[in-house]
Design a protein that fits this description.
The complex is a heterodimer of chains A (about 425) and B (about 325). Chain A has 2 domains: about 100 residues, D-Maltodextrin-Binding Protein, domain 2; about 230 residues, no CATH class. Helix content of chain A is about 70%, strand content about 5%. Chain A has 17 helices and 4 strands. Chain A is elongated, with a radius of gyration of 31 Å. The C terminus of chain A is likely disordered. Chain B is an alpha/beta fold and about 325 residues long. The C terminus of chain B is likely disordered. Classes of the chains: A mainly alpha (about 425), B alpha/beta (about 325). The interface between A and B is medium-sized, with 33 and 36 residues.
Chain lengths: ~425, ~325
């Protein structure tokens, strides 16, 4: 009386998709999904507000900072000129504080000390005495400025004998690369690993509570009676992945258009970054590895979350997974920066770091075949994770004595 | 034999830890019948049904469902209402029903059409587009029941279907069950409320302590006990007890006793001769409730009564 295997497989696919569709609709067509969709905006807004606040605080204190040089009036023009020359070597945000030149009075040492106690401005460092043997005082954060003043004294003395005129005038010419550099590959690898990690961390966590929802609603019994548990798990994972893809598509479209709005120099700098496999293939591999990463982590989240009975248990279960994911991210980043090292190979083989590490490999190396093998390997582990999760659920929650993994349930009978 | 049986199970065993919750249960449900599984709380009814449906695997024994050794292979032909009712609260009633049908192979469009028709036929036409969370418990339960029949299954398994329903909805549910049988479906339902079983079941099994204590028709079960006489004397006193068959008891002004196998005439003649007279007399076949108590024992009755009291106290 058994149905033919094809019929069973078709039915299994249909049942899986029914569950996936329900979960997708239940997730996406809700007001909370809009809130979730704009999570990055909220995160960025908070980041921006915090950043602007911190930046204004930092710039406010930088504006108030001063370096003080108590030198003879005759030496002051040479020192100011030297300061102007040295300052050009620093990036705008990295320049030392403003230099204040001061003629010495009766007690230069006391005047230097007094600079630190003056109202309205903070002295980070103060120089006094003969420029050949100056004494430089500096506060807790002023070590770098003290070194700068020492160098300034040296430059002033050297320039003194030669006059203030500039002896060399350089010509600065920008160039464009025809292909991304090795550093560009490396940076692409970093951004890829970070991107997949960020998206997976943000999106896969949703899977943790989905089986708990079924248990709270008591729908699980209806599902378990009609559909193999493996198909329930896979259906839920696909439903959640559908909403994750929607999220990625939305933000991917926005980010892809952001290039047009970028300042020319930033766009030029980003042009240096590029994957070794070429952009079209790399984009496909990125999607494939994001899928695998989501499925792998989602399956683990789903399986563990299915064991939880309360939201508190859910939170407690999610934390160790997130910590583990951070560790995996760290390993994958290290693997990305050392493409042929043993750690890179280990990260590529270990199933949970494999999507990150292989995406980094796609950025660093043009070879294609390892990706075919890696995707098959990761897919196998997705199936293992789903099967183990279903098995644990069958045993722990449904209290069924048979905890055999239903491989046939996944591929038809 | 299996051609005429919708469900056949032999020696089903299920253990939770060291405890045998189901201990060698045999069940044979003929096709096209309403079959009741009766038993006190904790008897193993739900576990038996879950094993028959393949939700959990038995630790021993065999079962076939609609001729399939693997119950899952018959899942498209089965409808199931679990003891713990469950629906997605954000779904509309017709979508919830269509979803349940889709799990059993019915396409969503047909499922929605049938859902609307079934809801209207069962007096829930106004709830078609209402979200489950806004329905009363009884209405949600009917929606779920409709969801279990929307794909017109060959076999309908209902676990305690009447619990939580008011009398009007209980009557609707009884009608729905009969209608399913009339269209050719086999219905297997569990209950510990005898009245429903007595009215509906063509055959029944009584389970207690994980074992099947009885299998047969309602009449067979009732026939296990002698006829009961309820006698009100004109002159009632202590001496009357000695004239009645052993086991007679006095309650609410009447004497209740089992009619002897040779008939009631002898006892009545003695009572009249002794001057006690007859003020009232009725002789009845015992109900399923009495048969159930006799079969499973008085301890089970206590469980049953406690459960009924809890049910009333909880307002279910």
């Amino acid at each position: 009386m058994s149905n033919p295997p094809t019929g069973n497989f078709r039915r299994l696919v249909r049942q899986t998709l029914t569950i996936a569709r329900r979960d997708f609709v239940a997730t996406v067509f809700t007001p909370t999904f809009l809130l979730f969709l704009f999570t990055p905006v909220i995160m960025l807004s908070f980041g921006l507000i915090g950043g602007v606040g911190a930046s204004s605080m930092a710039s406010g204190s930088i504006e108030k900072e001063r370096m003080v040089a108590i030198v003879a009036v005759a030496q002051q023009p040479a020192m100011r000129a030297a300061d102007e020359r040295l300052r050009r070597l620093f990036a705008k945000d990295d320049r030392p504080p403003l230099l204040v030149l001061q003629a010495p009075g009766g007690n230069p040492a006391a005047e230097a000390h007094h600079a630190f106690a003056a109202d309205g401005a903070d002295a980070s460092a103060a120089l006094y005495g003969d420029l050949a043997h100056p004494t430089i005082l500096y506060g807790g954060q002023g070590g770098r400025d003290a070194t700068y003043l020492a160098e300034l004294a040296e430059t002033t003395l050297r320039a003194g004998g030669q006059g203030n005129d500039r002896l060399s005038t350089a010509t600065l010419t920008p160039i464009s690369r025809t292909a991304p550099s090795a550093t560009g590959h490396n940076q692409a690898a970093f951004f890829t690993v970070f991107g997949i990690f960020f998206l997976t961390l943000l999106l896969a966590g949703q899977a943790v509570g989905t089986m708990a929802e079924e248990r709270n609603n008591k729908v699980v019994e209806i599902l378990a009676a009609a559909v193999p548990l493996e198909a329930v798990f896979l259906g839920k994972l696909l439903g959640m992945f559908g909403s994750a893809l929607l999220f990625v598509a939305f933000w991917g479209t926005l980010v892809s258009q952001a290039g047009a709005l970028m300042p020319a120099n930033m766009a030029h700098a980003l042009g240096e970054i590029g994957p070794a496999t070429g952009l079209p293939l790399f984009a496909l591999l990125f999607v494939a590895y994001f899928t695998m990463s989501y499925m792998l982590l989602g399956a683990v989240f789903l399986g563990i979350g299915a064991q939880a009975t309360t939201p508190r248990e859910l939170q407690m279960l999610s934390l160790p997974i997130t910590v583990l994911q951070m560790v995996i991210f760290g390993i994958a980043i290290r693997a990305a920066s050392r493409p042929d090292s043993w750690i890179a190979v280990a990260a590529e083989i270990f199933p949970f770091s494999s999507p990150y590490a292989m995406a980094a490999r796609a950025a660093n190396s043009p070879a294609i075949w390892p990706h075919v093998a890696a995707l098959a390997w990761q897919l196998l582990w997705v199936a293992i994770c789903i099967a183990v999760g279903a098995r644990a659920f069958r045993r722990g929650v449904l209290q069924s004595g048979s905890a055999r993994i239903n491989w046939k349930g996944l591929v038809g009978r | 034999m299996t051609d005429t049986l919708a469900i056949s199970a032999t020696g089903l065993i299920k253990k939770f830890g060291d405890r045998r919750v189901v201990d060698g249960v045999d069940i044979a449900v003929p096709t096209g019948m309403i079959y009741g599984v009766l038993g006190p709380n904790g008897a193993g009814k739900t576990t038996t049904l879950r094993m028959l449906l393949g939700i959990i695997e038995p630790d021993g024994g065999t079962r076939t469902l609609l001729g399939h050794d693997r119950p899952r292979d018959a899942s498209d032909e089965v409808g199931y209402l679990p003891e713990e009712r469950g629906l997605y609260p954000a779904m509309r009633a017709k979508d919830a029903i269509a979803f349940m049908g889709a799990l059993r192979g019915l396409d969503l469009k047909t499922g929605r059409k049938r859902a609307v028709a079934l809801l209207e036929a069962n007096g829930l036409g106004s709830a078609v587009d209402t979200k489950i969370r806004k329905l009363s418990k009884g209405m949600a339960q009917l929606v779920q029941l409709i969801g279990s029949v929307v794909h017109e299954p060959e076999l309908l398994v209902l676990d305690e279907p009447f619990s939580g329903l008011d009398p009007v909805n209980q009557e609707r549910l009884e009608a729905l069950i009969v209608a399913q049988r009339d269209r050719g479906a086999t219905i297997l339902f569990s209950t510990h409320v005898m009245a429903h079983a007595e009215r509906l079941c063509d055959r029944l099994a009584i389970i207690a302590g994980g074992k099947c204590r009885f299998e047969g028709t309602v009449a067979d079960a009732r026939g296990m006990l002698p006829m009961q006489a309820h006698y009100i004397p004109q002159q009632d006193d202590e001496s009357l007890a000695a004239l009645l068959p052993a086991g007679a008891r006095h309650q609410h002004g009447a004497w209740h006793f089992a009619v002897p196998p040779e008939g009631p005439e002898g006892v009545l003649k003695t009572l009249i001769s002794a001057g006690h007279g007859i003020s009232g007399l009725s002789i009845e076949r015992p109900g399923l409730h009495d048969a159930f108590v006799r079969i499973v024992g008085p301890d089970a009755l206590k469980d049953d009564e406690n459960s009924a009291r809890e049910t009333l106290e909880n307002g279910r």
